[in-house]
Structures
1.
Amino acid sequence: IAGITQAPTSQILAAGRRMTLRCTQDMRHNAMYWYRQDLGLGLRLIHYSNTAGTTGKGEVPDGYSVSRANTDDFPLTLASAVPSQTSVYFCASSRAASSGANVLTFGAGSRLTVL
Amino acid sequence: GQNIDQPTEMTATEGAIVQINCTYQTSGFNGLFWYQQHAGEAPTFLSYNVLDGLEEKGRFSSFLSRSKGYSYLLLKELQMKDSASYLCAVFDSNYQLIWGAGTKLIIKP
């Protein structure tokens, strides 16, 4: 089934540990995104990639890094996790970043708890 | 700053009609989206408006007024499965998506 796969589904992490959230899509979409979703707040963009080999910072990039070595994969790394990074993380993709009807397809999400 | 406002929560009765409003103040406008998100799941696309007027898609319709910075999502013949959060999002002039916090819709029998 075409779509986006995220892993892990859920993780509890000690503060200070390094963590990579994985995201893979099989739709050959050019653009990919990482969002975090917290109660009472809208989805907030962490990092994005308009095409393989390029990345950009979103609204809340501090403490996170990404890479886009190929079209399909877009991992998100927390170098040294802090409790404020406790959240649900969604990976998403779209055919092209700067087009009007840019419909996003989302992964199922990764629930991360930092203690 | 850029801002999108939606009611936090709404309650409606099965079989009825509900209108979820969204107002926005953004730097430019390149389209407005509505997404549906069931609890514990990913958002899924519902509708896209870029021109003023009403877009109808089955039981769901979405309206846009660019001059008023206003949109609404209309859900008819409500079903229990429509219980979900509804997210409004606007593409600004830089094609950055600005998201509202979402409206949690509770359907009662």
2.
Amino acid sequence: QSVLTQPPSVSAAPGQKVTISCSGSSSNIGNNYVSWYQQLPGTAPKLLIYENDKRPSGIPDRFSGSKSGTSATLGITGLQTGDEADYYCGTWDTSLSAGVFGGGTKLTVL
Amino acid sequence: QVQLQESGPGLVKPSETLSLTCTVSGGSISSYYWSWIRQPPGKGLEWIGYIYYSGSTNYNPSLKSRVTISVDTSKNQFSLKLSSVTAADTAVYYCARGVFDPYCSGGSCYYYYGMDVWGQGTTVTVSS
């Protein structure tokens, strides 16, 4: 099982908004910064959000990130069928001295 | 634009050593934390470890006894060796460019570690 906990799946209709949660502890999310990655089917992961809420160049503002305590949230608005993918949260775990990921959430756009 | 490309055998026998190389093009391997991540079939991402361009390393505690990551700055490459492999090591192996920034204030440090450029991945199957 993963150090960070994500829901296995979420779904919403095109044009709607969805949020994906990522739960951890004080040794990881609680005291470090979170990244989010998008993995489209059959492709490598892509950085979507870094340092909790920053978007790399080229990532649309439909994607947002936030953190509160030992949990982080990825938000996606104006859902498109092209957003169907697996989404992973990641961070540094200070106790483990290691990078850690969530188990991933599969987004279905109905 | 920096690009990463994994290379190495796609099939490794049980108990042998898996060896992969990641070639960095379009930029220097200097700076950054060059990382390896794997993804077993149908499963999530697992962090394997990183190497800083100067040679310092950090490994996943669950794999530490079997993993070695090295860097060759003259070739702009870094490599992964995983020894004593079993079927559980069958996965897509990704190399990635990592950013690791400490933010320290008042005696406490907070860390950002993330991977901003990824290779396309290479499938490694462990089977006799």
